[in-house]
Amino acid sequence: MLPATSPHPAPPPPPQPSPRSTLITLITLATLASPPTPAHAAPSVFDWPQHDSSRPKPPVVRPASPSSQDHPGQAPSDAVVLFDGSSLAPWVALDGSPPRWIIQNGALECARNSGYIRTLQAFGDCQLHVEWAAPTPPSGSSQGRGNSGVFLMGLYEVQVLDSHHNVTYADGQAAAAYGQHPPLVNASLPPGHWQSYDIIFSRPRFDDRGNLTAPARLTVLHNGVLVQNNVELVGPTGWLKRDPYRPHPDKLPLALQDHGNPVRYRNIWIRELGADAQYPEFVFDAAFLSKLTGTYRADDGMTITIAKPDPLLTATISYPGRSMVFPLHAESSTAFRTRGLDGRFTFRTSPDGTPDALVFRVGGDERVVRRNP
Predict the structure, then answer these.
(1) 87 pLDDT above the threshold of 70
(2) What SS3 state is found at 154?
(3) Whole-angstrom Cα distance, residue 286 to residue 95?
(4) Taking every pair of C-alpha atoms in the chain, what is the biggest distance, in angstroms?
(5) Helix H segments across the chain?
(6) Residues 270, 345: one domain?
(7) d(CA 276, CA 83)
(8) Residue 369 burial by Cβ neighbours in a 10 Å radius (0-12, 13-18, 19+)
(9) Are residues 298 and 223 in the same domain?
């Protein structure tokens, strides 16, 4: 008869990984993984057989409604509304302070000496709709008459100017890619009339070493008329200069120019395109970001150090024998993500707005680390 119990004790169960070791493994695997497909790589037409019923269908979007001179239209349902006639919340001055432009009768007006304004949210590839009106009665001439500008990524300007019976240089009139490409035709309306720009913008691409791999491209319809047809920009636009491309982030804020004229804007909306639409991204001023910096420590010794090298926050994740640095991209004032690692960093703040903890999430794991006093 066999004994009721084995004379040999059962082997102990295998040790379970600690939360820290699991997190370290996920971080290491993510950083060793192959790099993501470049944002500008589009699917090939040959990826699917013709008329394949299983091919993914595009999402349904409620289209924009047209504007009239008396009433602005409505943005498409998937657009980010930047100005609807009621609030300046999406905008700040270039230094991050509150904007000094004014809202009058549902229009956003450039007040005297108010400075440029920019969006809090950053954008790359996009479709942008802007409506504007030059002052009436007209005053001044050439570049001194109804002058402003729409700066994509804060660098690439589509000129705003009263170009109705107003002679100026060709690459500086309304709808010019300023200093580079004159519009194909002058489609301007008289001052005081609402005019529209519909802009398709493809941002420049840079490789990991900062070399330009594809220039920015621009298409503009002015009052429904094609005036820039997928033109190639040779670099940032500027007055009496043509600066070369320098590497910059994939997303940067949109800006509107104060050129000393009370130009008005309304019905501003934007749709992010392609991979740039996957995650929202915001740009906060240095003083705000500095409040988030510091060292956050877990009970098991892992630390996350948040620092502010210009222009992005960075997170240095340290544990015995290893340290890794990741740039952080803001999705809101408290939530940040990394691109090379599918990680999320969410700051928890005390009632006075001071961060006291950081929630770090990668894969399905989450850790809460406390800020050192």
Answers:
(1) yes
(2) coil
(3) 9
(4) 112
(5) 19-32, 286-290
(6) no
(7) 21
(8) buried
(9) no
Q: Which of 362, 373, 252, 303 is nearest to 28 (CA)?
A: 362
Q: What is the pLDDT of residue 177?
A: 98
Could you tell me if residue 62 is inside a domain?
Answer: no
CA 23 to each of CA 297, 341, 342: distance values in angstroms, whole numbers, following the listed order: 15, 12, 12
Closest by Cα among 360, 363, 282 to 82? 282
- The span from the first CA to the last CA of the chain, in angstroms, equals 68
Residues 209 and 291 in one domain: no
pTM (predicted TM-score): 0.86
Tokens read off for 303: 């630390």
Cis check: omega of the bond before 311, within 30 degrees of 0 = yes
Instruction: Give the model confidence (pLDDT) of 39-77 as tens digits.
Output: 445 678 899 999 999 999 999 999 999 999 999 999 999
What's the number of domains the chain is made of? 2
Length of the chain: 373
- Domain limits at 359? 286-371
Is 95 in the same domain as 216? yes
Contact 237, 155 (CB under 8 A): yes
